[in-house]
Amino acid sequence: MKNWYILISWLFISSLIITKTWAQNSTEDQKMQWFKDAKLGIFIHWGIYSVNGIDESWSFFNDYISYDDYMKQLDGFTASNYAPEKWAQLIKSSGAKYAVITAKHHDGVALWNSQASDLTVVNKTPANKDLIAPFMDALEKEGLKKGLYYSVLDWSHPDYDRKTRTKYRYKNDPERFQKFVDFNFKQLEELSSTFNPDLYWFDGDWEHKAEEWRSKELKAQLLKWNPSVIINSRIGGNLGDYDTPEQGVPVTKPDSKYWELCLTMNNSWGYQHNDDNYKSPNELLRIFVDCLHMGGNLLLDIGPKPDGSIPDEAVNILESFGRWTDKHAAAIYDTQAGIPEGHVYAPTTLSKDRKTLYIYLDYKVNESLVIKGLKNKINRIWVVGNGTKLDHREVGKQYWSKVPGLKYVDIPDNVYDKDITVIAVLLDGEVDLYREKGQVIESN
Ligand code: GLC
């Protein structure tokens, strides 16, 4: 009798726990849905560092320039040709669904009209106005999601224990440091209440522990201001919603459910007149496709000039993205990570219902493309954005073997896209793959 009682209570409690985690997961999934589907975002590093064209904040931290000389750039930051609506239109036409702009980088210069700090572009530069506000409005008008980059460390703030500038250290004066953290909370309250961003892109957490930043409390507070705000991984203490690999393109699929690769077009985040090492549109599109294949997003960076104009090379890249994403929309936004390596020698994705396999070809195949280990029947194959129907044939299938035959798809020369050609393969059901090592007749 007693045993029954224990068993029933145990079952009851575990079902409560399962329902609770399930509910948490599904609200988490709901919150992350737009991000998961967005695939492409544009990162904007805009700040006084564009005046001399030097590394954002790091140039004084690393002593490539003195702090005072770095700050002299304030005088040259005019924003005189700033056209936030045009920025938003250009971003939208690239196929991106969200943008993330540096509200404040490690140098501490706020791009909005912060009341908590004197160091703002409104007070200290000839731009003399809030630069975040009109951009947030423009993004909203274009139906794009609004992201704000915010550096939790601030190498200008008197209460921040910057290694190369102030003598005091957190350990010797934690109270003073907490004054600084309060300041972060104040600035973030301003940002949340004024702009209600959809996403916060934190940075700079590496200089302190999560407890010192009060990351948990901060996250709770941000969610109080906006329960559906998405937070990247760099808030400290593993509290973020998604991972942010940087510059290095992942080779195998990252483990996290949600992730975003942030990437520069040349070798700099901000505008640097001397850096013309741009990746070509084709190279960048291929990186984008790699992200799609591994189920992640690409956050592609631009660095506007001090007057607010966007360098021609960046405009050209965004326009090239626009051409390709517009033509291939069906194979971008409604997809999930593709099938494992080994079946096709190209990146792939799957439609949400897992019944369409998309294959991305950045090369011309000789004679025919081969798909291995596909158990499904193929109902139809076509070239995305072009419509041409393609034939296929199955070769090498043995009646006694479980190993599927090789499916050959002939691709005529005239259907290729100049950057990446996408082949859609409609299956007779959810994708079903043979993942074993082959078979001999005796084992049948
Ligand atoms: C790094 C750098 C920073 C840059 C960021 C973008 O964290 O510190 O300068 O803004 O990457 O991902």
From TrEMBL:
It is an enzyme of class 3 (hydrolase). GO terms for biological process: fucose metabolic process; glycoside catabolic process. Transmembrane segments: none annotated. Pfam families: Alpha_L_fucos. Belongs to the glycosyl hydrolase 29 family. Residues 19-328 form the Glycoside hydrolase family 29 N-terminal domain. Its EC number is 3.2.1.51. SMART domains: Alpha_L_fucos (SM00812). It comes from Echinicola soli. GO terms for molecular function: alpha-L-fucosidase activity. This is alpha-L-fucosidase. Keywords: Glycosidase, Hydrolase, Signal. The record marks C262 as: May be important for catalysis. InterPro entries: FUC_metazoa-typ, GH, Glyco_hydro_29, Glyco_hydro_29_N. Alpha-L-fucosidase is responsible for hydrolyzing the alpha-1,6-linked fucose joined to the reducing-end N-acetylglucosamine of the carbohydrate moieties of glycoproteins. One of its GO terms (cellular component) is lysosome.
